[in-house]
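To assess whether ligand presence alters the predicted conformation, the chain was also submitted together with shikimate-3-phosphate. Input:
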Amino acid sequence: MLSDCAENLVLIGFMGAGKSTVGRLLAKETGRYFLDADALIESAQGRPIPSIFKENGETFFRSLERESAEWLARCVRGSVISTGGGMPAVVERLHAMGRVIYLQLPFEEIMARLGPEERAKRPLFQNPDKARALYETRRALYERQADIILDARMSPRAIVEAVLRQLD
Ligand code: S3P
């Protein structure tokens, strides 16, 4: 049974940190719907993120991302929301969307987890050196916005259990 309009839980973290996998499980365990901000943008645009980047550029994508965050904060409750890795860089107050949970993962682990197919879906993960530099600039942004920080090297189940303990 889905719970009534509970506070949203917002997952942040770098590409490949496991936000969608953990998010689905967390949603199931807490009686919330799972929403993926990137998937909302793709569905509204009718095209995948690489095409948006290619055809309209990153600045345009960021404006869509900001718009989706504003809508989520205004209109959505009772959900687990997975954000794109760059959302904390363009949205100042993620708290407006709900409780913010940062999945923290070392860059080496991210590299190991993201195979060629997964990298192809991510325009900003085409060059590993550039991705590492981006990772370094993002760390402080994630930490600053997080209510809860979790080590994402744990299994999705262990992460969800840790979140549940911290929500009590
Ligand atoms: C991005 C992360 C991606 C997606 C876009 C840009 C980023 O989402 O929003 O490719 O700037 O880190 P994931 O974190 O789900 O891969």
